[in-house]
Specification:
5-stranded mixed sheet; 166 residues; Alpha-Beta Plaits; alpha+beta; 46% helix; 5 strands; 7 helices; binds flavin mononucleotide; globular
Length: 166
């Protein structure tokens, strides 16, 4: 019986890699939407990109002055270790898991960690995703969260954030 299970495990690629996607939201404790918040976000991103690259984790972080919402993709043990560090971080609070599931491929393969401000996004975009007019991830499904994050990341808001902060 055990050997049968072992045989089955050797054929499925999902079993060998255990690629997982996790989405959470949390309360942003960085204070008002100003230059200091941008500095704090840049230092979070600097560490996140370095550590995620080392752990082969990809994803994106979106935020406004009230919320963070983050998508993390990677091998599940590495993902869990990263999540434990993120949950202990006092720059946010009330980390709430929105979705976690095994995946076959990454949606954010090009980003160790992308970042996008929801503030800059139009009400139209949020409404198009059925989550408008105000950004409130506690009212969103994991699916809505994923599609909105993909859309924001593709719009390249992260580049604007980076240049605004220089
Ligand atoms: C909203 C938010 C998102 C973060 N995202 C990541 C991330 O994707 N990867 C990561 O390694 N650290 C991330 N961090 C930073 C971690 O919380 C932590 O500070 C960092 O991993 C360094 O941990 P260490 O000092 O225990 O080594 C994030 C922090 C916050 C507040």
């Amino acid at each position: 019986m055990l050997s049968e299970i072992r045989d089955l495990n050797t054929v499925g690629f999902a079993v060998t890699e255990m690629l997982t996607r996790l989405i959470y939201h949390s309360e942003n404790h960085l204070g008002p939407f100003d230059g200091k918040m941008m500095d704090d976000l840049n230092s979070i991103m600097e560490v996140a990109v370095r550590k995620n690259e080392a752990a082969n984790i990809t994803g994106a972080l979106i935020f406004d002055n009230i919320w963070f919402m983050q998508v993390l993709e990677g091998e599940r043990e590495a993902l869990s270790a990263t999540l434990r560090r993120i949950m202990a971080d006092e720059r946010h609070d009330n980390v709430t898991i929105m979705d976690v599931r095994p995946i076959h491929e990454r949606m954010f393969a090009n980003w160790w960690m992308g970042i996008a401000a929801v503030q800059g996004a139009s009400e139209k975009l949020l409404t198009r995703h059925g989550v408008g007019p105000r950004f409130n991830p506690s009212k969103m499904t994991g699916e809505q969260a994923l599609l909105l994050t993909v859309d924001l990341a593709q719009q390249g808001l992260s580049r604007k954030l980076a240049s605004a902060a220089v």
